[in-house]
UniProtKB/TrEMBL annotation:
Name of protein: Glutathione S-transferase family protein
Recorded superkingdom: Bacteria
Domain GST N-terminal: start-end pairs: 1-81
InterPro entries assigned: Glutathione-S-Trfase_C-like (IPR010987), Glutathione-S-Trfase_C_sf (IPR036282), Glutathione_S-Trfase (IPR040079), Glutathione_S-Trfase_N (IPR004045), GST_C (IPR004046), Thioredoxin-like_sf (IPR036249)
CDD domains hit by this protein: GST_N_2 (cd03047)
Domain GST C-terminal: 86-207
């Protein structure tokens, strides 16, 4: 059975768990990270030298980086609907996945610890304001894309792009600050809420 190491409060662990449930893969999840089993051990670093979660163990195969894990699981299950086999269609999905990891998530690196986690080390009002502006800018980009597709992030069907961005947008919606109206985002989020796996691992009250 697949083993997933990482605490369920982690946004990156939750995207992997959501993916597993979307494709019907059985898994065993073990809590690692702050407040649980330590990732700062030689044994864990042998699995992931970054000492971060999640880590996937599939027999003798070990994989880290949450988006890579999601892609691996979908390909393992043969789910071309979530990650198409056609090179151009696949690249379109992966483009939005990479954007989520590199651009979108970087936008909240200061403002989320400040407002979402109430971390006293993140208390610069100017940086918080700049972070909110940048975060909303990236939400606007996604809103424009959803206006174009009229459905899901990468096109007419639900894909892995919706999984990884669904978790990120849920965090944006739950962090306490004034947000502008983005109708396409709201309509897409309502569609996500019709998926039981998203309610369990995405919009479940966790930031």
């Amino acid at each position: 059975m697949l083993k997933i190491l990482g605490k369920i409060t982690s946004i990156n662990v939750r995207k992997v768990l959501w993916t597993c449930e979307e494709i019907g893969l059985d898994y065993l999840q073990e809590d690692y990270g702050s407040g649980f089993a330590s990732t700062e051990t030689d044994a864990f670093r042998a699995l992931n030298p970054n000492a971060m979660v999640p880590v996937l163990i599939d027999g003798d195969f070990v994989l880290w980086e949450s988006n890579a894990i999601c892609r691996y699981l979908v390909r393992k299950a043969g789910r071309d609907d979530l990650l198409p086999g056609d090179p151009q269609e696949c690249a379109n999905v992966e483009r939005w996945m990479d954007w989520q990891a590199s651009e979108f998530n970087n936008a909240w690196r200061y403002v989320f610890p400040a407002l979402g986690r109430k971390n006293p080390d993140f208390n610069d009002p100017e940086r918080i304001a700049a972070g909110i502006k940048e975060w909303n800018h990236h939400i606007a980009i996604l809103n424009q894309q959803l206006q174009r597709t009229g459905a899901w992030v990468a096109g007419e069907t639900f894909t892995l792009a919706d999984v990884v961005l669904g978790l990120s947008v849920n965090r944006w919606k739950m962090t306490p600050f004034d947000r502008p109206s983005f109708p396409a985002i709201e309509a897409w989020f309502a569609r996500l809420n019709q998926r039981p796996a998203f309610l369990r691992h995405g919009n479940n009250g966790m930031l």
